[in-house]
Amino acid sequence: MERQDEMNGNENNEPNGSGREGLESKSAQGENSPHEQADDFNFLQEKIKERPIDKKKLLRRTMITASLAVLFGVLACLSFLLLEPVLNNWLYPEEEAEVVTFPQEQEEMLPEDMLTEGNTTQTGQEEEQEQSDADAANEEETEPEIPLQGYMEQYEELYKVYREISSSMVTVTALHSDVDWFNNTYQSEGTTAGVIIANNNRELLILSHRTALSDAESIQVTFCNGVYADASIKKYDVNTDLAVLAVDLKYLESPTLDYVSVAKLGSSAASGLIGTPVAALGNLFGYSDNVCYGIVTSKDNNVELADNQYKLVTTDIYAGENPSGILVNLSGEVIGIIDNSYNNSDTKNLLSAIGISELKGMITKLSNGEDLPYLGIYAQDITAQVRTELGLPQGAYIFDIDMDSPAMLNGMQKGDIIVQIGTQEIRSASDYMNALRNAEIDKNLRIVVQRASVDSYEEMTFNVQPEILE
What we know:
Layout: H1 2-32, H2 34-39, H3 55-91, H4 111-138, H5 149-166, E1 169-179, E2 185-199, E3 203-209, E4 218-222, E5 228-237, E6 242-248, H6 254-259, E7 264-265, E8 277-283, E9 290-305, E10 308-318, E11 324-328, E12 333-338, E13 350-355, H7 356-367, E14 373-374, E15 377-380, H8 384-390, E16 396-401, H9 406-409, E17 417-421, E18 424-425, H10 429-437, E19 445-452, E20 457-464, E21 467-468
Parallel strand pairs: 7-12
Antiparallel strand pairs: 1-2, 1-4, 2-3, 3-6, 4-5, 5-6, 8-9, 8-11, 9-10, 10-13, 11-12, 12-13, 14-21, 15-16, 16-17, 17-18, 17-19, 19-20
């Protein structure tokens, strides 16, 4: 039994010994094997994964953001459109444009009336003459006589006329963008002369020729003091090639407005105009600010245009090929707008102008932004002698008519005599032109004519709607 216990005791002690040896062996191996030690802590390592993207949520947020941006833009635009006129009127208040009117000319005084008026003032003039003679007699010292003094004084007076009217003259420049052979863009210019004809408290209105301004990208007006401003065509007349330009007053400073002046429109229908001295101002030789002096050689040459008839005033002033500007009398009044396109071939360089008296009605409508009615009729007066010899009725005789014009398309013909328009009786070509000028473009015009038949004239009525000639 003791022997057996010892054997059992030895057997029981062996595992304990082997266990300690095993731990020591493992400890020794642990110190010598780092890979085995790392494997023991694998349960402490974590792997961080990115959060998955929710595409639907991202799309929804994007659409909401875009919608809010569009809504903000629409509200901003509406706010600007609604508030911009209010702010503009508050910052730059504008006065209402006045209606431009040019007074009608007074009839000339008859010789007998002049004689009567002369008798009433003769006594006063005699007294003034006696007083002036007495003053001259009392002068002790006299100035020495200067050779050609009268000639010098004459040109001094002409120069005063030029200085007075020059503040109304402007240079109108049309700017174009062109391309050269090397595909380089450059600015080209075309110039013409203009004259200030009105100030309606909102704009300066300038009369000028339109041909030099056709196809212009921008129009620039240079005043006599060197200040320039942008301008736009308000209205124009195709027949005469005249246009009214507008320069907004808010772009001009007070010194410029005080420096420039509005030209006075005179009369080209006066009986004593032929042989009187005149001055021509403008672009006479291809460059601006020219002046020439001369005399009027004629004023009764007719310029026949559709629905209009003008007088051509000719002078002995030599000018360039395409002059532009104005013709003024010694009182500084405009009596004509220079235009050499109606000259004869043998007088193409002698300066001519369309009479201002016949232009006033057209200029009035253009200045107020109104269109000119067009029927396409060329009319002239019938003299009393012709009416008596041929038995013609009194009215405006149609000697020509434009093809495809409103008048022709409605049945009117050459040879018709216009005797009534609306309720107005027509007795001359000027009556017809005045009646048409006052007509409305969008309404039919009742025109009564006398048309020749086999043995007499028959009355015919036409309803014609005027158009705008472009």
